[in-house]
Amino acid sequence: MTEYVGMAMPRYDGLGQVKGETKFVDDFVLPGMLYAKAVRSPVHKGILRGMDLSAAKATPGVVGVVTAEDIPGAKLFGACGDQPVLVTDAISYKGEDLALVVAVDEDACMEAIAKVKLDIEEQEPVFDMFKAMEPGAPLVRPNLKSNLWEYGPGMTTRVMYIGDVDQGFAEADDVVEGHYQTGEQDHAAMEPMVSVAYFDPADRLVIHTHSQCLYFQLGQLAAIFALPMSKIRYVGGVVGGGFGGKNHIHADHLAGLAALKFRRPVKYRMSRREDLLYSTKRGVFIWDYKTGFKKDGRVVANYIKVWQDAVAFGGFSRYGGE
Questions:
Q1: Residues 105, 269: Cα–Cα separation, whole Å
Q2: CB of 147 closer than 8 Å to CB of 130
Q3: 8 Å CB contact between 242 and 187
C-alpha cells in the first residue's frame, strides 16, 4: 500500500477528457434518432381531468406521444416506489411529467407541447414543512394518511439514544443551544439529465445512462418496461458529473418508453432550466442543537432534533435522513 498512499495516480479516463474525445451520453446521435420532451404540469397541485393531445400529434415533425397508457409494467418508480412514471390523476408538484411528445427534433417537440390542452382541477398546495405537519394541512398526495414519512406503521419519528444525555448536561460547565438550517441544494452537474435508448440487433433495449448507480436503477426500469433484466443493456460509466444528483431516475425510463413504443432510437434530455427546476435536489434540513461542554473543550452531551423536507415524494430522503 505504501506505493499508492500519498502518491498522485494517473486517472484512467483523464486523457480522453482533456483531449475532448470522451463520449458522454448527449454525444450519441444515431441514424433515425427521435427526440422526446415532457409535457409538464403547470400547477403545483391538482387533479388531471384530461389531456387533449390532438393538436400536438398533428404538429409537423411529431411522430407521436407517450402517456401512462403506454407503460407496459409498473406505473410507479423511485427509491420508495411512490412516484408516478407519468401522471394519471393526482399532480404533486409543478413540472411533474404528464406525457411525452416524440418528434424528429426538440423544436418540433416544444411546438407541439405548446398546443397541448390540459384540464386540471387546481388544488391548494403546501410549501412549508412545518405547516405541512399541522393537523388538517393539505395532503401532498391524496393517498397519504398524513404528510409525515412513516418508517414503519404509525412510526413517524425515529429516536436514537446513546448514553445518558441528562447526566451529560448535569456534568457540563457550559451549554450552547442553536437553530440551524441548510437550503435546498442542486448538484449542478455539467451534463444535465439525458438518456439515449434504442434496440440492438439482439432485440435488447439499450439505454445509455447519465446515472452513477446502474444496478440500483436496473430493477426499477425492468419493472416499468415489463422486461427481464437480460433484455436490457444498461450502459454507463461516463457520468458528466453526479455528486449524488443522478442516483434517482430522471431520463432513462422516459427514453426507454418512447423507444419501446416507436421502435426507433430516442434521446430524452432536460435543458439546463428543466434540470434546475425539476430534477431531484438535496432537500432542506433543520436542526435544533443543545450541546454541553467541559471547560477543557470536551463535548459531554448533545440533544439534537432533526427535520428533513422530502417534498412531494420520498426519493432518497429516507436514505439520506437515516
A1: 12
A2: no
A3: yes
Strands 46-52 and 90-91 turn out to be antiparallel
CATH number of the domain to which 141 belongs: 3.30.365.10
Taking CA atoms, 149 is separated from 34, 45, 92, 267, 314, in Å, by 39, 19, 16, 35, 8
User: Which of 63, 50, 42, 62 is CA-nearest to residue 112?
Assistant: 62
- Its pTM stands at 0.92
Comparing CA positions, the residue from 90, 92, 112, 93 lying closest to residue 101 is: 112
Residue-wise pLDDT for 78-116, tens only, equals 989 999 999 999 999 999 999 999 999 999 999 999 999
Please return the burial class of 149, using the count of CB atoms within 10 Å of its CB with bins 0-12, 13-18 and 19+. middle
- List the beta bridge partners of residue 308: 285
Question: How many structural domains are present in the chain?
Answer: 2
